[in-house]
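Q: How would the structure tokens look for this protein?
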Amino acid sequence: MTEEPARPRHGDAEEEAPCLVPGCGAPSVRHLARVEASKAFPNLPEQGRRAPLCRDHYREWKKATRERRQLDRLGR
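A: Here is the predicted structure in token form.
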């Protein structure tokens, strides 16, 4: 009987997708909904539902949307 090679689990990607922000290309550390990411980065390309972001752009997104996210948590 032959053994099948182990399937990669979710999150065990061999190579991470590059950051979707034009001109960046750094390895991504977080994936956001593209609609959510476009609130801070309006020039994102229209490809896919998820937007991979590098560490620096994820931090930019958090700073840009901090007040709106806080209001959403409070129920406006």
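The chain is about 30% helix and 10% strand.

The two ends are 61 Å apart (CA to CA).

Upvote if useful.
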